[in-house]
Amino acid sequence: MIVPSKELTRAAGINQTIQSLCGIVAPVIGAALITVMSIENILLIDVAGAAVAISSLFFVHIPDPEKQDKVPDLWGEIKECFDVIRSRRGLPYIFFCSMIINLAIAPVAVLFPLVTVSHFGGDAYQMSIVEMLWGVGAFAGGLVMGARRIKSNYMVLINIVNTILGLYLIVSGVLSPQHFVVFAVITAFGGLCCAVFNALFTAILQKSIDHAVLGRVFSLFFSITMLPSVLGIVGSGFLADTIGISQTFFYSGIMIALMGLVSFLVPSAMRLGNDCRKL
Predict the structure, then answer these.
(1) Which of 6, 124, 221, 236 could bridge across to 110 with cysteines, CB 3.0–4.6 Å?
(2) Nearest alpha carbon to residue 190 among 135, 146, 265, 229
(3) CA-CA distance, 87 to 252, in Å (whole number)?
């Protein structure tokens, strides 16, 4: 409601850049602060940061979309969100695709720190390097999205980055323990793909949904995708013990890459991505 429609992908990219930068810089600052002050005082910094962030919103005018005069009804509003999603051809599939990808990537996210130690035989230092490179990749992805307007079909780009993300996980799953450097380098591409996907997916929703229900649709999306993520997290221990951490990466990568390739064959989703490009 604040950013012009044609600049939504750039704004989402800038947002991804800021989040990635925080993910890179915050641990460094935290490590430095823990050497000079108590943990209690460090936690108070979080409170101070929240106060500054909330106070800054007093100086921003956020348009308030027109609302219908009706009695608040939780279940009625949830049904309205589903109706809005179903009424936009291609959007239900994009929701479904995101759910499957979240299901596939959830166990990887849990096991990500462990693969460095258990499979590649690394230590805490190497584990932090991998985490940092993921953040660097996400930072670069945000910069790419924020630098210029996207003139390509949004779904084409989403499918490409999902395929690359899947290939990254597949390669990570088959690398031998001696190839840690390769794993660390390609991890940056994983972070870049996730940043680009998040920016494009956000822009598609913003351009496809009426502002009056957009907040509720986002809330519904996060609620719907939470269940697959929880299932993936719960199953991560079982997968690690049953097939191994590297194989979990491999099969999760296959699932994500397949979703990226299959999505090229869904006409409604491809048309929606093209329509969003024109808005």
Answers:
(1) 236
(2) 135
(3) 31
CB atoms within 10 A of CB 166: 25
Rounded to whole angstroms, the Cα distance separating 116 from 68 reads 53
70 Cβ partners below 8 Å, 6+ apart? none
- Rounded CA-CA distance 195/158 in Å is 11
What pLDDT does residue 68 have? 61
Per-residue burial over 186-221, b if 16 or more Cβ lie within 10 Å, else e, is: bbbbbbbbbbbbbbbbbbbbbbbbeeebbeebeebb
Residue spans of the chain under pLDDT 50: none
- Give the span between the Cα atoms of 264 and 259, in whole angstroms: 9
- Reading the block at residue 124, the tokens are 């805490």
pTM of the model: 0.83
